[in-house]
Write the structure tokens for this entry.
Amino acid sequence: MYLDKNDKKQGIWKSYHDGGAIHSIEEYKNGMLIGEMKYFHPNGNPKLVTQIQNGGLHGNHKEFYVNGKLMVSGYYHNGNNDGEWKEYSEDGLITEIYHYQSGLWHGNYEKYYPNGNIAEKGRYELDKKVGTWEYFDENGIVISIEKD
């Protein structure tokens, strides 16, 4: 962890919470973030683990609740959300599944109730709802349908 003669960050940099627990670990080369970037909750559990390439988000991305359980997982490509993303409850159940293409909502979308039943489903194309969208009650019974 140091600044080179041009005041650019080099190596692995760590920061700490007020209580002394690790807050973040980042790696720099020529002042640019590279590799894996990690942030931590004050209790030491991971908060965020993501990949950096050429100074921007690129690769697997995960966010965590304070209890250490997975909250969000997805992928970045050249700084944009890309592919399938999932969100989870603190109990570990999937709450949403959605897709991106070059940072835009694109693909199937599903949202779930806390009991695990589907709440809504449909499809996005380039950030716009398309086709048929179905909405369900907590028992999984269709309560409404929208079509474009």
